[in-house]
Write a structure and sequence with these properties.
Length: 571
Amino acid sequence: MRFSRLLVPTTKETPNDATLASHIFLIRGGFIQSVGGSGLYNFLPLGKRVLDKVRNVVKEELDKAGCQEVSLAFVTPASLWQESGRFEKYGKELLRFRDRKENDFVLGPTHEEMMVNLVRQSVKSYKQLPLNLYQINLKFRDEIRPRFGLMRGREFLMKDGYSFHASEEDMKREFDLMEETYKRIFTRLGLEFRVVEADSGAIGGSGSKEFMVLAGSGEDTIVVCEGCDYGANIEAAVRQEKVCEAPAPTLANEKVHTPNVTTIEDLVAHFKVDPYYLLKTVAMRALYDEGKSEIVLFVIRGSDTLQEVKACNAVDANELIEVNDEELEEAGLTPGYMSPMGLPSGVRVVIDETLKGASDMICGGNEVGYHMTGVSLEGVDALYEDIVAVQEGDTCAKCGGRLRYTKGIEVGHIFQLGTRYSQPLGCTFLDENGKAKPMEMGTYGIGVSRLLAAIIEQHHDEKGCIWTEASAPFRLHIIVSNIKDEAQLALGEKLYEAMQAKGIEVLFDDRKDRFGAKMKDYELIGIPHAVVIGKKLSDGLVEFVTREGLVKEEVAADEIITVAEERLCSY
RNA sequence: CGGAGUGUAGCGCAGUCUGGUAGCGCACCUGGUUUGGGACCAGGGGGUCGAAGGUUCGAGUCCUUUCACUCCGACCA
């Protein structure tokens, strides 16, 4: 491709809302263009080329693993989502609309319902199983707060795959196969990543794993062990039960006057105890289907923090939101002095499972200005669940090593669904005995457009993008310093043609611009290799440049074609 | 959802307080010079000032309404 014919609107200036490297460089490099609406982008020729590269890697590996590509209808009848029960559950991120006949439709962020519908119409026998179908199509998710360019857009390209099995064992076999396939995909793309245990979120189902590209700018906090390969999203991470070295306070079971002592810090100072022995009561409003909601009290140790996703799962709510003091008082609760003991009836309480039977605790008195000491939770009737967040320095449940936090970008997520969708949607098959059974399912996603952002987050420098070999829009960038110099231009043309003849994708900068401008564009766009034909051609020399580290080597001009071929074909 | 802020040329912004011919930089077009680190000179094109209503002889500017977008927050009772 000739640069002079390519639409690449590179800019010197950074858009004012861009903060992440990937967002800045993808826009400045002319890969994508903001559509003015939030979270919507056009892919320009360079961006589209990268997208196709990434998409092909995904497709090749999936096809190798026996998956089959399909393309589902973009617009989904809402009735399918009502059948599965997700129409309410998915919340506002689901874009809903009506056609001229007032029928409800959705633009699906994921297509379990649609795929199940496809399969239940055409698969009837165990002989047709297993089956793994996928598509790579646009998805829409009406994000609360789209940001970070392609990282969290509202419209995005995603690969979503679904597998169907006659038995749970076979589904688990496929789940493992997909884990291996995903690892191959991300490795081919040149990414450093980690597979972690995850929460299943609105998709539902049991065991799920996320594929996290490690990057400081990642939106997800992941917990990793320094001693073994344990890794988990903070939303699902577990730890060995904490022990406290400080002695338990030995106080009588009584009500104590504690004016203006309302925070954990205040209590620690007031009673001179380790926060481990305090009960922290966090009130949240849990939202359910059909607009129902209730206030729930989550009780954890003062030394812990509430993990909202775990808490939400514990009460099987769609979402948890904050409640203000007025709402608490209306419900008969006392902000600052709440506790699970002696509550007005009808308030739902969830207690962290490690507090079952705990004694010598201090908690609120459910009365302004009073706390209770010497409290025991022995025999307290409540829901006991794991609702706390693992903290840095906690102990790994698997090996006893030290756990620490790191940041990751979620680029893939695989789920063991079981019969979560096949059951309600009546997706059944006849087994060897002629008995109808719901199919065991798995579901597997990859954020294809997000991968572009993830690659740049992990591979860039202060000057611009550094694409990996498998993702680069072109393999080689040829820069002719001065196109009015006939010898320079002639060599450029010759090299350009030779590379094309070898099937190497090459970008040839034949523009009339000055040297500096062309180099800036090269560095910004980030094609892995370049040949600079300039001044030293009069001495019979050109430069071979590697974008990573901007390493420059002088090469004899009459050998450059051979050298370039060797370097590029070795990949 | 809570708080703060911004809407003026493709992009980045000034002008609004104090109403009076719509501006600057980048980008773009023409001509010329220049060619190893985002060049220079000269000339030029491009705007329903987010939208609607109001006040006024006159509104980008003042008033009302509305829409959109951005940023921060949405664990520590």
